[in-house]
Amino acid sequence: MNQYDVTVIGSGPGGYVAAIRCAQLGLKTALIEKYPTLGGTCLNVGCIPSKALLDSTEHYHNAHSTFKEHGIELENLAVNMNQMIDRKNGVVKANVDGIAYLMKKNKIDVLKGVGSFVDKNHLSIAPTEGGEAQQIETKNVIIATGSKPTVLPFIQQDKQRIITSTEALNIREVPKHLIVIGGGVIGLEMASVYARLGAKVSVVEFTDSIIPTMDLALGKELKRILGKIGIQFYLGHKVTGATREGDTVTVTATTPKGEELKLEGDYCLVAVGRAPYTAGLNLEAAGVQMEERGRIKVDAYLQTNVPGIYAIGDVVRGAMLAHKAEEEGTFVAETIAGQKPHVNYLLIPGVVYTWPEVAGVGFTEEQLKADGRAYKVGNFPFKASGRARASMDTDGFVKVLADKATDEILGVHMIGPRIADLIAEAVTAMEFRASAEDVARMSHAHPTYAEAMKEACLAATENRAIHI
């Protein structure tokens, strides 16, 4: 029986990063994965393929909508969906092949099959295509099995016309009318993909704001901008059903006034969140305790009630984000090795990869108000940015929240061009507990989108913004 210091179950961003860090620290490491390729949801049917399609469709949208103003003349512009999907698949393959290479480089044993507990120190790996299961012995286990799309019990998803995000990544035609249930990150990203290609898109959201977990100013601005590419929003609507007849899908919902809304389309994407995935782990055999919403119960060190068994990423509390899982994977590996790592959960940014992009980190303005904390606000619109004017990306703003007494930056919320990258400046500043004045006095290259961060900090510091 093979013996390991650490065995990781699940090869998504949390799992493979944990395995690599364990190997770097000199621990004999195994990684169990039930699917043919490594990388989990993120690399195979999540973060990476969705960004590939978002980039492809943004190119098409610009060619269709803005190239003429740039002085670029095109004729017979068309969408080749087969090529677009094939390119996306190529991007995915390159990434998952890269993870396989990293496993070999770090001398990590990859065990293919479904991993489950025999007891706290023994795991069974059953081949997914039949055959005999093997057993291994391990001192520590890191559970990193991720999540799956949440299913609405009153909607039958056939995965052909009533689909999840997984199927939405492989539609080889432009829908005539895509109905999206859920105005969160996944729903809006896929809505953007197909709206840019010319599909009619309707988004039905239960709350009265899109991206409702982020600063409300971001959702309000994003709704306005996405409306310009034709996306229709039905906020405060409770979906009551979705049925298919042939190629037609009918979605029904109750409006805020209690009336019935009926929408007909050819595709319906159900994107109402994700749920922890722990099926088949046989956690009972190891005595691992669970908590609400199907999550695994862990302590401050991400260790379960069973010593030596840890859990990270989407199966534990907190935001379901790939980079959160990566930080936790590193944290647990270093904890097992006897180090003293830390993760600052307040400073894990959230990002929406629409265009313009959206990101936030730290406290929202709504949270500061609820806490009764005295704060000040600095805003800077991209319409006042020379770099944004040059690229015709003038929608959006940067919003900085700072402590009224100390000037420490408490939250940064952005919507605009290249925000997914720009939010890192805010995270860096806040990790070092910078004040708005500190960032305002840092030199930012001109002309850049990042100048908007400096200007917002100037605005928060005695209203000193230069360009507004």
From TrEMBL:
Cofactor: binding details: Binds 1 FAD per subunit.
Molecular function via GO: dihydrolipoyl dehydrogenase (NADH) activity; flavin adenine dinucleotide binding
Residues in FAD/NAD(P)-binding domain copies: 4-329
Catalysed transformations (reactions): N(6)-[(R)-dihydrolipoyl]-L-lysyl-[protein] + NAD(+) = N(6)-[(R)-lipoyl]-L-lysyl-[protein] + NADH + H(+)
Active-site residues annotated for this sequence: H446 (proton acceptor)
Keywords assigned by UniProt, alphabetized: Disulfide bond, FAD, Flavoprotein, NAD, Nucleotide-binding, Oxidoreductase, Redox-active center
Binding site for FAD: K51, G115, T145, G146, S147, D314, M320, L321, A322, H323
Binding site for NAD(+): G182, G183, G184, V185, I186, G187, L188, E189, E205, G273
Stretches assigned to the Pyridine nucleotide-disulphide oxidoreductase dimerisation domain: 348-456
Disulfide bond annotation, renumbered to this chain: C42-C47
A Pfam family recorded for this sequence: Pyr_redox_dim
Broad enzyme group: oxidoreductase
Example of a GO cellular component annotation carried by this entry: cytoplasm
E.C. number(s) listed in UniProt: 1.8.1.4
Gene Ontology biological process terms from the UniProt entry: 2-oxoglutarate metabolic process
PROSITE patterns cross-referenced by the UniProt entry: PYRIDINE_REDOX_1
SUPFAM superfamilies: FAD/NAD(P)-binding domain, FAD/NAD-linked reductases, dimerisation (C-terminal) domain
NCBIfam families: lipoamide_DH
Miscellaneous field: The active site is a redox-active disulfide bond.
Protein family membership: Belongs to the class-I pyridine nucleotide-disulfide oxidoreductase family.
Name of this chain's protein: Dihydrolipoyl dehydrogenase
